[in-house]
Protein 1
Amino acid sequence: MLFIQVECRMEEYPVSRALVSLLEALSAAAPLPRALGAGTRTPGLDPYVDYVLNQLALPAPHRSYAKPHEKWEMLSLCFRLFVRWLEQYEPSPSDFPPTGREPDANPPPGFRLLVQLHTKSELLRLLLTSLDEAHELLDGQPGQSREFVEQSLVSILQLLERALSLERALNSAAVQAGRGVLLVGLSKLILEPEGPENCCRLVTCCRVVSHGPQLARAAAGAVSVLRLALHAPAAARHLLALLTHKHARAAEVRHGFVECLEAEEYGDDEETASLRQAKEGIVMLLHELLPTAPPNLAHFLLGYQLTDDSASAVTISARSWVVRACASSCGAAGAARQVAALSALLHALAHAPAAAHTHTAQDWEWCLLRRLIEDLPMSVEETPEPRWELFQPNQLRQAIASCDLHTGMGGKRISVSRVLALLTRELAALNATAPQRNLVSLEIQKVLDYVTEVNHQRNLAATLTHYYDSWRQLTEILFCVVPHDILDVESRKTLLLNILQDLLNKIQPNDVLPQIGNLASGTVLLLLVNLRHCYILQKRESNLKTSDFETSFFGPSNQIMQTNSLTLKFILKKILSWILVSGGSTQKMRVNLYGALLNYLNIVNLKHSPADPEEDVNSTYVSRLDSSKVKSSREESSLRSMAIDVISDFGENLCTIVCSDCIGAGHDVCRMVALSCLDMLIEINPRTDWMNTLTNQGYLRSLIDSLLQDDEGLKEALEPQPKSLRVLYVYESKMALLIKLAASRAGAETVLSQGALASLANLSALDCHPDIHTGYNSHKDTEFVPSVANRWKHRTCHCIFKYFYRNYAKFGHIP
């Protein structure tokens, strides 16, 4: 066709445009016959396809035009014809050319276009460059040219959408045909970075969506291309990285999607239908991307700050209420014994199958329950106080403290209005010049900014505490109410060990918020109670030797047992380290820590089972009664040896702190659990040198002398209606420790040398013998309050009799 040369010299192309319009009209009138071009006839539409593609479309961007808009007019006509041909084509194995001979019939025009779109061809390059250029021209191109640019953009997106939707069918047809056609795939080619900003064309599609209110058809096509191209997770991650690379671009894309969703719909015309299609496509895109690994593109489009690791107080507060709602649901389901609801909740929190027998150790790795506190900060940076130029720091601190207000979430907040009113009154009473007043006003604004920041940090601390409290409730309720047929002992142990390790690894005792520290110590205590309960259940059902039971309890294989042993070692180190630095903490925290340590020691201090070998029959009764000798004759378990090594590493500091709490002026419960811990520590390692610390630093003497201080309280506890029984239980804890110390010959000698017999002999409470015959049956034991007779007989005297018996066994002559 020679007329193209004439049109090029004239820089006008009316005949070419008319030819393309004619072909498009003929193609739209009826589908192309499959036999067109078969046999000896002229090969169908191939000459026209070649002419439109190679003579009109590909050279169009490089030609000169008398009227600039004719370039986009020509491209829009060519692209619209290509869309028509591609929509009428479905891949078939017969379309691929045979090897070694000419084909019986030329394939439809859509086959040739589709193959070029899935390879690195000039047609694909033309489409992608025209896509970028058309988008750039949309914002500023006025007049007649804008109409053709919009038409070209819509046709380009339709071509890409159709090609992506046929990619899998084309590959399948090529495999069935067995032809050697190299197909790279448009889904991969569209990700290649090009252009001045080195971005892929998916970024351009995202930016086209922002024109949804004005270009509904283009926005709908762009969303369809994104949905098809982002089926592969790698493509979605690639696009997310490109969008978040620049903050300005990220904000533009996110706002564009929001504007498209919020665009008003008027009437029932084609433009409104396209806008509705774009909105539905965005929602479906979010629905398809949300299940992928976070952070993903859906989170970005929904407004999450993916590059900011810190969560705002509002976000943490919202999460905390969701977690608390889960805790309430778990408690309600447990109270009503709704097994299905508990199983579903456990499945959601642990990401494990509902059937308990299918759980493995790997099922609990990074489960939701553990990830809920993974990124939760346990401390809040204190707001630094600025340097004041005009105010006295001490007086200003007192003034700010006087403006504190109690809030409903706990803690205090500074009333900014009160601070402002107070400082304003001071400024009004100030006799100063105008420049000086201006300086004071600036200083007042500085104070208000500081107070606002302090309130912000306090709000964050309260929010973190509320969130952790919600997680604590969920965790504690879950382990308390979920039965063993849903969460078996083995899975329960694994989950408990993992959560304990995560929690103790996250808490830094020196930096943790006091409120979170109190709650976390209680959580550690309850989790260890549950772990000890698992031990008790398996111990009852087992008839194995201690060493064999230890192997079966802490792991079915050597590798798992070693991992669990290391976890237990880490837990013990963290608990002891926390005790060492918690001297200035609340009594509640110390009680929780000592309780956690006591439960841990009961787990490690495996009691001997009936399957263990009996003692040597040649040993004497006295030697068997002496704990220092008995322990040496038994084989130490590996866990007990590990615990002894860890405790020994902390040295005398740990002994000093525990002994101080045993005789200190703290809460009675704190003294009781400290005494119990000291009792258990000595039982685990009777050969420890803690006896020297108790004696040399005067702790043992103070403990024995404190028995006389409890005399009056013991007499009150023996009344029919006592005010409190705390003294009785503290006395019992003290006597239990003295009995444990007297279990060895060296300990008995030390206890006697410190005046234990003299202190016990001076107890006047022993003379308060109740009349057990008068009204004895009317004062029966209750769950927490024993009768008067049992208080005197079992609580007070039995401890003394046992103590005397231990000492007599060491020094008396028993045949």
Protein 2
Amino acid sequence: MKTSFLFCTAILAFCSACAPKVIAPDGDSQYRSFAPDGIPFVVADSMWQADQHGNHRAVVQVDGAQGRNAVQVRLPWRRPDLRPETKKVVVVDARSGKEIRNVRVSDFSAESATVAFEPVAGDGLYYVYYLPYKYRKGWDDARYGNPWNDYLPPVYEADENWKNSLSGEIRSAKVVRFESRSRFDAFTPMGLAATRRETDSLKNVYAGNPVLFPEDRAFPIRLTNSLPARWVKTGAKKGFSGVAQRNEYYTWQIGVWAARQDISEVHLAFSDLSNGKEIIPKENITCFNQEGINWDGKPIKFTVNVPQGKVQALWCGVQIPETAAPGVYKGNVTFTCVGGDTRNIPLEIRVTKEVLADKGDNDLWRHARLRWLNSTIGMDDNPVKPYTAMQLDGRTITATDKTLQVDGNGLPASIRVNDREVLAAPFRFVVTTDRGPVAFEAQNVSLQKKADGLVTWTASCRREGISFESEASIEYDGYVHYNLKVSSSSPLPVKDVRLETDYTPYASEYFMGTGFSGGFRPASYRWDWKGPWDSYWMGNAKAGLHVEYRGGSYHGPLLNDYKPAPPEAWANGGRGTVSVSGNKGEKALVVASTGADTLRAEPSQYEFDLLITPVKPVDSRKHFSERYYHAPHTGFDKAAEEGANIINIHHAQKLNPVINYPFIVQDSLKAFIRHEHEFGRKVKLYYTIRELTNYATEIYALKSLNHEIFAPGVGYGLPWHCEHLIDDYRPAWYTELPQETADAALVLTGFSRWINYYLEGLRWMFQNYDLDGIYMDDVSFDRPVMKRMRKIMEQYHPGALIDLHSNTGYSVGPANQYTGFFPYVDRLWFGESFRYNQMRPDEWFVTFSGIPFGQMSEMLQDGGNRFLGMVYGATARHSYGAYSPAPVWALWDSFGIGEARMLGYWDEDCPVRTSDPEVKATAYVKADQVLVSVGNFSNQDKTVTLSFDWNALGMRPDQVTLEKPEVADFQTAGSLQLQAPIPVKSKEGCLLLLKRK
């Protein structure tokens, strides 16, 4: 008995070992040889010169050429690109590499063409390049100007006598194969188009509408205007079967071809997947094209319509439980639509015993990361460092170091920060009718602390036939949101709806926004909504308020890109205004006025946001200790010898070659990060949202989401775009890469589920790279995303850093547009288009320095102005500008600036002043010495004297010396008398040391 049992066990083990292993398509599958016409399409063994040739060629064998002046070859190239007749065909002798002049192209179409040419080298191989272009060098931006077209035009210089000799029969050459320059350039079986005859044949075979093609994720559906050649071979399968590992997020596609007529409201419904008693619930399955979780955490649904003749990919995904029993899980997908047939698609997934620890995220070809689109990572109502739990005491709310007291109507009665009052009077909301003003004067406000990071309240009243309702909330960082609803049971014409805000003299010294560039507040200013701005900031160094009028089409930065429509409730068809009034040194009044309108039973909603500033204390010690290098990583070790301790690895660099998709180069990046960590240095990556590289593995899946993520456009751009994405996209940033390759990005929409993917990508990099933070280069999201980002950082890499860069030409006043980001970033880099030598001190302070908001900044454009920058504690970055900051860094270290208290001219406690209002001084104060930065902002050379507040400094004038230390490329050494005149050249300055003897 025992012997028989052992024998049977051995036989079973032997049979299991001999059983064929389940082979599923993988990341290599789509690049294998494919021969739809008996001619293989392959990836070349090596890359040829792209310039003047392009990325695709036919390899042609010529035999029997002796005595012949022409041969011809038919090329069934199955091109997917639009306008193929506008592109030249180039023939080259394979041995010499020389282009052949005598060429004629006939019977030209997207499907095929006949090419006759003179076989100048006799028998042998010739290359026919059929999508040649001029390779674009350097970098550029395809968003602006005319559409790009780098293809060579179909201009031929064939000899007339040669052309006239082609009237007789021409010997045929043979196409050996079609080659793509690289895998990235390969059309693949999914990018080669079916012919018209093949399409008609399939249409006849499958009588229904639409025709469905279940497809593996290893073969992403690319084409929308035609069928892929692969489907001619495979046909339309009745069901889908795939192979997944346990814990894998498994994806697949259903291709929908509206063969006979338009269809609309396409929908997939999933059943449970069962394997005996084992169940994978249908709740684990989704179709990304029809539903998901939006960037704001709310469920979202999409309507999918497919015009006649078009192909639509439906990307689906299922989470395979880690505990799933191996075996075959079966279920069904029900396809419904308007204008077409209902279909039942059998679904079968074989789950193997292997466990995929990361759900498939590390294998990009699996498309497992598509689930990131529906992530809610970082979403909660709890505070994140450095903020603490909020306190509610009656009508008074404390958010870390900020206090908001609400009135009986829920509007702000008092706002205090740094022991300074922002408001000179409570907010007022007033409706003016023919009978006069009717104010919102409720006394029934009800407040509730919902979480440590969120307090909400409501209030309402009815006066003179007008209903007022207020819904509001404040978060832990001092962000306040209001939605004021106003209605009338019957139509009521009103003269005006006004929100009035009074600011104290201190909190209204500076102003920025609503079209005003920034600086000292003007005594009178008026904005009429003719432009993209929707917000302003009013304040000073220690107290202020950012106000944004909500309800427009877009509320992020990058105003020049998105050109948002104004909030209709406030702009009111051009009748609305925002006005500022108040003499210098007196309180200021800001009135947002709608002008004439009509109230109805449906409430008009007047939304606005507030952010109390500064959002956090300025941390000058941290700022001076973190010194950035922003150049190729190979120079970081040298820069570190001069004080740099953080590197930002930009895109278009060897370790981060493509934009906003730092997932391609991994091993060498990890090794570099480990190396730098050994020396206590930090590594950050360029990672932002605005555009996305064409190297993103998920690009075809994302494009199938129909403008949710990629902005619509006329197409064109880089040849790669034209050959693979075809049309309906908007090209963006372009960067030359090695081997005549290129990174060619696409414009992203402002707000989409790509934000969720982006945030999961951040988490993934912290876990897999041990990254120290990111560098953000002008982004198209807003404050809620930044909150999530900072929470992810604190969870997965506490203390990780974010620095924010902006071009004022993009965001048209980035300090105002990015104010909502400031609680969560670590420093600013403002930025391109900043004209430092043309800016007044008040402009520097408000629009550049970051100081009124609790931030500090660095200079960029043309290296900045190293003399004036130090007044605000700013230098340029190492290796980014004509002058290195290293000599100034060395002075910081010898002085010990990290231990000093920074007191600028804007602070009433600043203990050092100059005798000229156009020459400013900032003091970095320690117990025994003071570093003084003096900057002349005027257009004339100046001579000034310094005055010192000796009591504040705790020093006596007879016990100190004043010296000018040696700083390379900045100043020479010298000694000064305390009251001696100091010459300061225009737009320059000096650094002085006041020391105890």
